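user: can you give me the structure for this one chain? tokens are fine.
assistant: on it. calling the predictor now.
[tool input]
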Amino acid sequence: MAVIIIKKSDFTQVRALLMGSPFEAIERPIAYGVQFKLPCGINCNVHYSDKNTEIMKITPQNEQLDLELFQLLEFNLSTFAC
């Protein structure tokens, strides 16, 4: 599980990626951010940074539930990494 750091300005595109096919995530608020839950059980937590308001940290979780989809998710998210 790697933490991916993105620019806050890219969040709209990341959100569209996570909620679109093939991920079809459901969005829900969490402390200091948003959690996207995929139907297979993979979670993707997006946290705002108090220290640097220009970045966000994305933490994908539960890779064991669907390794192939998890790897696809990480690959797609890494294109936004700064």
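assistant: here you go. The chain has one domain: 4-79. The longest strand covers residues 55-61.
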